[in-house]
Amino acid sequence: MLSDLVDGGAGSRRHARALYWMGWRITHIADYLGVPRTTLHEWAKAEKWAEAKPLERVEGTLEARLCALINKDGKTGGDFKEIDLLGRQIERMARVHHYEKTGKESDLNPEIRKRNDGPKKRPERNHFTEDQVEKLKAAFLDELFDYQLTWWQNILQRTRAILKSRQIGATFYFAREALIDALETGRNQIFLSASKAQAHVFKQYIRSFAHQVCDVELAGDPIVLSNGAELHFLGTSARTAQSYHGNLYFDEFFWTHNFTELNKVASGMSMHKKWRKTYFSTPSSIQHQAYEFWSGERINRKRSKADRIEIDITHDRLARGFTGEDKIWRQIVTILDAEAGGCDLFDLDELRFEYSDEEFDNLLMCGFVDESFSSFPLAELLRCHVDSWEAWTDWKPHTQRPLAWKPVWVGYDPSHTGDAAGLVVLAPPEQPGGKFRVLERMQFKGADFEAQAEAIKKVTLRYNVANIVIDTTGLGEGVFQIVKQFFPAVRGLRYTADAKSRLVLKAQSVIRAGRLQFDAGDVDLQRSFMAIKREVTGSGRGVTYAAGRSNDAGHADLAWACMNALDIEPLEVTATGGAVRSILEIN
Questions:
Q1: In the UniProt record, does the keyword Nucleus occur (predicted)?
Q2: Cα(238)–Cα(267) distance, rounded to whole angstroms?
Q3: How many C-beta neighbours within 10 Å does residue 110 have?
Q4: Interatomic CA distance for residues 263 and 280, integer angstroms
Q5: Distance between the two ends of the chain, CA-based, in angstroms?
Q6: How many CB atoms lie within 10 A of CB 158?
Q7: How confident is the prediction for the chain on average, in pLDDT?
Q8: Are strands 247-251 and 491-493 parallel, antiparallel or unpaired?
């Protein structure tokens, strides 16, 4: 027993104090140690046993036990081991006292001091621990809708081709899928889009996911993970990038220029059997080069008539996904499929009201556009494609003044009967007959005309706006009046059959002359132009242009906004010369 190991006097006092801190009463301690109660009370009062802090009590207990072991005769090996242990605990208590004075964690842990005093080791770049990878995958799987889960279940398919509705989270999903695959397998991932700006949407999703779930900041272009996997984000410049290899994700492949050539390079990146290819897009036109790939006709071109294959690409056959005779796994996901799969992000009644039947079918039900009556065929629009991040060296979209002090023109088309309003920022030619560049396009849904006028005002603060043209039909008049207060030179344009004909003819002339450029990823702008068709007026005596509804010029809002801005240049200007009218001439 401990009482047998301590000597009298100081030893008895330490023993009594230890028992007191263990919860013994003074009376019981007196009986146990044979010390008068009055003496114990005097000790307790003098040393303030009851007021001792937890750390003091631990130190007192350590002291009593250590003194008992030191005074013991005939120590065993276990006694010496315990003395060594208790000595180290005394050292630790000393560090705690020092920490209370300095607040430095290195005073508690000598290893921290050694680490701080030694050479600094940089943290591993783009690194995930095994636990973080599991956490990332769990977060990924927890948020999947049913149709996205189908994509995940078919991740091992050699080639996947998906025709999809707008805004159902395909780019969002495939960005995360690719990151998970790269972390688990170390395989490279290649994201190919019509432009680098569009490809970098993948990058934004990936970086956001890693930061949100694991607080890991991914950096670099390409992003190179610590396990060696590379994530490349490519635009049309990939036509000459023969050295890349990895899993391929080809976004909006139905809206790329010269798909056949680009796909040869793209498929070459994933030629080895260990790589996978994933194509996904909203539909454009059956005249697009990608339609042969989608329909399977590409395979039939090298087959005899007897060996031709027929692939069923109807929605009924592909709604759940199906691997065709050409070994491509295809699926069609309409907005109704997405809703049935758990996606509750849409109000279908509102969308049916907002879009014409043709637009609803193309944008949301995966129907291809019949461009036989379109005033702007897709083939002509594809020639307007540029990779804006690479082609426009004076264009800095993420700065406070993206085009510095160079002038721009702004076109605005108001909303009509529930549809969206559109705004386009256009860089005019620097030389007569030169090229127009669509720098920005914006759409406003549900915003009142005051909010839309405020959006135009913000544009004037970012750009050196030289001209603004606003369609004053309907709600446009309200926007026009507000804009006139801060930009008196704004021009109002009232749509008539003659005015719309002039706008379309001017745009057709500019496009045919190769004078209009926009980022290849601006799918919504291309779709907007394609929607404009020539129609007979209500009287049956003339021709007008509309998009889906004969009396509704508000649809195809981005195209009309762009044409409003183009109208500042006279119709007769060609690629070989001409002069831009002044505001006085316009008015």
A1: no
A2: 11
A3: 11
A4: 13
A5: 109
A6: 14
A7: 85
A8: unpaired
- The confidence score (pLDDT) of residue 161 equals 97
Q: How confident is the model at residue 554 (pLDDT cuts 50, 70, 90)?
A: very low
- HEC states along 189-208? EEEECCCHHHHHHHHHHHHH
- On whether the CB atoms of residues 530 and 363 are closer than 8 A, the answer is no
From the CB of residue 404, how many other CB atoms can be counted at a distance below 10 Å? 11
- Give per-residue pLDDT as tens, 411-466: 999 876 556 789 999 999 999 889 999 999 999 876 678 888 999 999 999 999 99
Q: What percent of the chain has pLDDT over 90?
A: 54
Burial class (CB in 10 A: 0-12, 13-18, 19+), 306: exposed
Rounded CA-CA distance 29/37 in Å is: 8
Residue with tokens 């001792």: 52
d(CA 488, CA 492): 11
> Would you say residue 581 has pLDDT above 50?
no
Dihedral-angle region of residue 356 (phi above 0 means left; psi in -120 to 50 means alpha; beta otherwise):
beta
Q: 549 with 411: CB under 8 angstroms? A: no
- How far apart, in Å, are the Cα atoms of 473 and each of 287, 411, 443, 533, 563? 35, 14, 17, 20, 15
Residue with tokens 């990608």: 290
Query: What are 251's two structure tokens?
Result: 């976004």
What is the value of pTM for the model shown?
0.73
| Domains with residue ranges and CATH for the chain | 2-116 (no CATH), 132-364 (3.40.50.300), 371-586 (3.30.420.240)
Going by C-alpha positions, the residue among 545, 396, 416 that lies closest to residue 479 is 416
- CA 148 – CA 333 distance, rounded (Å): 10
Report strand pairing: 385-386 vs 516-519: parallel
DSSP string covering 369-395: B-GGGBSS-HHHHHTTEE-HHHH-TT-
Structure-token pair, residue 8: 């009298």
Using CA atoms, how far residue 167 sits from 184, 345, 466, in Å, is 28, 9, 35
Determine the Cα–Cα distance for residues 44 and 31; give it in Å rounded to an integer.
Answer: 16
Q: Are 187 and 275 in contact (CB under 8 A)?
A: yes
Burial class (CB in 10 A: 0-12, 13-18, 19+), 273: exposed
pLDDT tens-digit readout, 500-527: 999 999 999 999 999 999 999 999 999 9
Question: For residue 104, how many C-alpha atoms fall within 13 Å in the half-sphere facing its CB?
Answer: 11
Is pLDDT of 233 > 50? yes
DSSP-derived 3-state class of residue 422: strand
Cα 451 from Cα 363, distance rounded (Å): 26
Give me the pLDDT at residue 98, please: 73
- For the stretch 8-40, pLDDT in tens is 466 677 778 888 877 788 888 888 888 888 888
